[in-house]
UniProtKB/TrEMBL annotation:
It holds the Pfam family GidB. InterPro entries: rRNA_ssu_MeTfrase_G, SAM-dependent_MTases_sf. This is Ribosomal RNA small subunit methyltransferase G. S-adenosyl-L-methionine binds at G70, F75, A123, E124, R136. It is found in: Cytoplasm. Its EC number is 2.1.1.170. It comes from Brevundimonas staleyi.
Length: 209
């Protein structure tokens, strides 16, 4: 996918495209000094990272506020923040437990003046209320649901980007959780899945990793 194809799919304004281009430069530079994403994925930035993240906006047109757990290199959180820029009340919380990743996220947020807050800490310990809680490549569903449960209990919907093992991960998670979830095929990769979680309840005491 090219930048032009991404713009055609998303309708992103020229200003947003320029910010995405700058983010790509910062990601490439940051990846030279820390492991943010696989180096071989950067040439496929527009599909593998940008479109993979941006498709969530179509799944949650109602959403103004997002929490991205284990935000890492900023997928999907930074993409959502860039594309939401200028929307009334739009805000993204980028939460990560590693300080060096938070420094990278803050650099992008500051340079692009994004409607986002970087939080250094454990995802499940934050008292943040949002419309949607999201994550990509953070943990298997059973553990991820533990991280997301506080946000879901405060009324958030869950939208999680997962790989081809998503269905099995949900089955495994059902041992610990009563979960009302739906799987849809990712528009960036037919092997991927978007897991929409509407409600969640623990089956009993369990570890929160």
């Amino acid at each position: 996918m090219t930048a032009d194809e991404f713009q055609a799919l998303t309708g992103a304004a020229p200003e947003r495209m320029a910010e995405l281009e700058r983010f790509l430069v910062l990601l490439t530079e940051g990846n030279d000094v820390m492991n943010l994403v696989g180096p071989d994925t950067i040439p496929d930035f527009w599909n593998r990272h940008a479109w993979d993240s941006a498709q969530l906006l179509d799944k949650a047109g109602f959403a103004r506020t997002w929490a991205d757990l284990g935000a890492g290199a900023g997928f999907p959180g930074l993409i959502l923040a860039i594309l939401s820029k200028g929307r009334p009340d739009a805000h993204v919380w980028l939460i990560d437990s590693l300080q060096k990743r938070c420094r990278f996220l803050q650099t992008v947020v500051d340079e692009l003046s994004l409607p986002a807050t970087v939080v250094w800490g454990r995802a499940e310990e934050q008292a943040i209320k949002v419309d949607v809680v999201t994550a990509r490549a953070v943990a298997p569903m059973e553990k991820l649901l533990g991280y997301a449960q506080p946000y879901l209990s405060r009324g958030a919907q869950g939208l999680f980007l997962k790989g081809e093992k998503a269905e099995q991960e949900l089955k495994d998670a059902a041992k610990a959780w009563h979960v009302d979830a739906e799987l849809t095929v990712s528009r960036s990769d037919p092997r991927g899945r978007i897991v929409t979680v509407r409600s969640l309840k623990s089956r009993g005491p369990q570890q929160r990793g």
